[in-house]
Known about the structure:
Layout (H helix, E strand, L loop, with lengths): L1 E4 L2 H17 L11 H10 L3 E7 L2 E10 L8 E8 L8 H15 L4 E8 L3 H9 L3 E12 L3 E11 L3
Parallel strand pairs: 4-5
Antiparallel strand pairs: 1-2, 2-3, 3-4, 5-7, 6-7
Amino acid sequence: MNISQITEEDFKSFWPTLKLIIEAEETYAFDPQMSFEQAHHLWCGIPQVTYVAKEDDVILGSYYLKPNMAGPGSHVCNCGYMVTPAARGKGVARRLCEHSQDVAKELGYLAMQFNSVVSSNDIAVKLWQKLGYEIIGTIPQGFRHKKLGLVDSYIMYKQLNP
């Protein structure tokens, strides 16, 4: 698996996965009606860096990394990860998260925070915990899940340089 900074062509190939995930309304609080241009800006324009994982030129997943806050809070970063349906269960999310932590350290971040991990997304919650993230807060009924209705979401945090 090769992880590199995303290109315009990569994003075009990744767009169907992003669209599928946001339209499912199960893990991301993004507008399910978002256009390609809006999604590109959100995933590639706003973040400081965006990466894509590929194997034999096939997109497996992607992540973005950005400051979680500005000014005095800019030493904490935030990331978002998505894995293609065909690549799920193959360790792609773990590799992307490990890569993002290395990149975050190189960029001078001291910690990483996930602002809204949907509590019903057991696979992600357990993976992040295995990688050292702690649930530091719960937002009661903070996510409107398309199938389950209102569910809690978690704020998860990890110091990168303990």
